[in-house]
Amino acid sequence: MRKIFIIIIIISSTLTFGQKETKTKIIDFYPAFRYGFQLPIHTGDNYFAKDLSSGFGFHSALSLVKIYNFRLSLGYEFQKLKVENSNTIGNFDFINSNTYQYILEYEIPINSKFELNPTISYGQCQFNYKENTGGSILAKQNLEEIRFGSYINYSLNKTFAGYAGFHFSHFYNSDLNAASENKDYFGKGNKFIVSIGILIK
Q1: β-strands 160-172, 188-200: how paired?
Q2: Where are the beta strands (DSSP E) in 92-136?
Q3: pLDDT, tens digit, for every residue of 81-119?
C-alpha cells in the first residue's frame, strides 16, 4: 500500500508540475498566417505622392512561434504603381514594388471575438520601373522602410479570423546619388496603408 501511495504522489506531482510548466511556457510553437489586400495612400511633396498612383496590392506574413504575447513574422508585399507623369523621371509606364519585411507584433485580446495587434516592422523594397511594351525592366531602385500601426482581428472560429489594418510607413533610399533637392523628392516618402484580409491560426 505504501508503494502504491508513493507512486500516486509521484504521478500527481509530475502532472502538477507539467500543468504549471504549460502555464508559464515562454516560447510556444503556434503558427499564424496573414493574407490580404491593401491600399497605400502616399502623402507629402515627393515623387511617390505627386507623380504616381496606386491601386490595391496584396500582402502576406508568416509567424511560427509566439514568445509570451509577442510574434516575430516574415512578410512579403506586392504593389503596382502607375506613373502619371513620365516626364518627371523617365519614360516609364508603371512600377512593380516588392517589399520584404521583418515584423514584431504583440497580441492584445479585447474579448472572446476581438483582438488588437500593434506592429512595428523594418522592410526592404525593390522598385522595378517598367514599360508596358514587352514589360521590360528599365530601371531599379532599392529603398528601406520603417512601419508601425495595428491590426484588429475578429474571430470567425478557432482557426480563421478576419482583420482590418491601419499603418504608417516612412521609406527612403539612403544610397541615391542626386542633388539634395532631388534626393528628397525622389528618394523618400510617407504613406498610410489600409488593409483587410484573413488570419489563419
Answers
A1: antiparallel
A2: 94-106, 108-109, 114-130
A3: 988 877 777 678 888 999 999 999 999 999 999 999 999
For residue 16, count other CB atoms closer than 10 A to its CB.
10
Buried b (16+ CB within 10 A) or exposed e, 185-194: bbbbbbbebe
Task: Please state, in angstroms and rounded to a whole number, the distance separating the CA atoms of residues 188 and 175.
Answer: 11
Contacts 24+ apart (CB under 8 A), 16-23: none
Backbone torsions φ then ψ of 191, nearest 5 degrees: -155, 150
Helix, strand or coil, per DSSP, at residue 150: strand
Let me know how long the chain is. 201
pTM across the whole model: 0.81
- Does the structure show a pLDDT above 80 at 178? no
Taking 50 as the threshold, does the pLDDT of residue 79 lie above it? yes
First to last CA, the chain: 48
CB atoms within 10 A of CB 101: 20
